[in-house]
Write a structure and sequence with these properties.
single chain; 382 residues; alpha+beta; Butyryl-Coa Dehydrogenase, subunit A, domain 1; Butyryl-CoA Dehydrogenase, subunit A, domain 2; Butyryl-CoA Dehydrogenase, subunit A, domain 3; four-stranded mixed β-sheet; 12 helices; 10 strands; 51% helix; 15% strand; globular
Length: 382
């Protein structure tokens, strides 16, 4: 049983006011325009949201993971893209640096990211290696005091706008996971090219792209960890990333519930509010049940990271799988409750429905989460 502290409640209320007053009135407009307003990001930075769980000595806010998850959920009620921006320094991009970075690497790369002074990217997925990340074919060849990176990455968030990227490549494909190594690469490095991916179902206002490494030379001191240590770096980043996605999913479901409840009290059919019809009530109840159980799963996963960042993938996978399913179901019912208006972007639920699908795919598909959970259960039963 989780009971929020007074501080957590206060932070949640501050973020909720920010979202209701600054984000909600503008989100339709800037989604139509296709760009996240920089002033909203600046306001999030000023509130300390971007700093997340990054320690204060490295420019962060020093939040615990549960409090961080609460802030992500609140923002995602209306804008998952902004929630992704504020979550990135604490999840995929910053997690590896916090745990494996040298002091110089943390000052150079993590600190400006946590302060909101730049964006970063994480390059894992390849055209022929998505869920099976260990099958990546991008290579890193040692050459004196540098490594030469060759290959291609795709579906990389912030690929064309980041200042630096965390890149995973293998020193020998035959070694499988034992060959994977992590590197910190600046986007302007010679031989590195990026190309945007456009016309997406979800995440339309955020940058996504492909990265091409054409014999890109990276100094050895920009290797994160040691040669062959990239797999644990990747897992640590992805576990925090899955909690991030799960918290966004709860936000989508909560937003769907709030918008649908309000609409059900206003819209009338057959002479009475649609909220008085049992079929609509059933959908609202299922939304509420989903939100509450998914939120508990997210808090449990976040708490596992607070207790031990090496706790493993079980709870992050449980939270990600369940919460993304709930987001998909709740946003679907929200569109149904809104009827034809649910197809219009003016009523928000159309956008939430599109964004929900993305949560079932990024940072490991639902099928991958099922595999991870099943392996844990079978191992535990031995």
């Amino acid at each position: 049983m989780f009971e929020l502290t007074d501080t957590q409640i206060e932070i949640r209320n501050v973020v909720r006011r920010f979202v209701d007053q600054e984000v909600a009135p503008r989100v339709v407009e800037y989604n139509r325009a296709g760009a996240l307003p920089t002033d909203l990001v600046d306001q999030a930075v000023a509130l300390g949201l971007v700093g997340g769980v990054v320690p204060e000595e490295y420019g962060g806010s020093g939040l615990d993971y549960v409090t961080w998850a609460i802030t992500i959920e609140e923002v995602a009620r209306y804008c998952t893209s902004l929630a992704a921006v504020i979550g990135y320094p604490s999840s995929l991009a910053g997690q590896g640096l916090m745990r494996w970075g040298t002091e110089e690497q943390k000052r150079r790369f993590l600190q400006p990211l946590a302060r909101g002074e730049c964006t970063a990217a994480v390059a894992i997925t390849e055209p022929d290696a998505g869920s099976d990340a260990a099958a990546m074919r991008s290579t890193a060849r040692a050459d004196g005091n540098t490594f030469v990176l060759s290959g291609q990455k795709t579906w990389v968030s912030n690929a064309t706008v980041c200042r630096w990227m965390l890149v995973f490549a293998t020193v020998d494909p035959a070694l499988g996971r034992q060959g994977i190594t992590a590197f910190l690469v600046e986007r302007e490095t010679h031989g590195l090219e990026t190309q945007p991916i456009k016309h997406k179902l979800s995440n339309r206002i955020s940058d996504t792209g492909e990265i091409f490494f054409n014999d890109v030379r990276v100094p050895a001191d920009q290797m994160l960890g040691e040669v062959g240590q990239g797999w644990p770096v990747l897992l640590g980043a992805v576990n925090a990333g899955r909690v991030h996605v799960a918290a966004r999913s709860v936000g989508i479901a909560q937003g769907s519930l709030e918008l649908s409840t309000a609409y059900a009290q206003q819209r009338k059919t057959f002479g009475r509010e649609i909220g008085r019809h049992q079929l609509v009530q059933r959908m609202l109840v299922e939304m509420a049940l989903g939100v509450e159980t998914a939120r508990m799963a997210v808090w449990r996963a976040a708490d596992s990271l607070d207790r031990d960042r090496n706790a493993g993938s079980y709870w992050p996978s449980v939270a990600k799988l369940h919460a993304s399913r709930v987001a998909m179901s709740a946003s679907h019912d929200a569109v149904q409750i809104h009827g034809a208006y649910g197809l219009s972007d003016e009523y928000h639920v159309e956008r939430l429905f599109r964004e929900a699908k993305m949560q079932e795919i990024v940072d490991g598909t639902s099928e991958i989460q099922q595999t991870i959970i099943a392996r844990h259960l079978l191992a535990e039963s031995r």
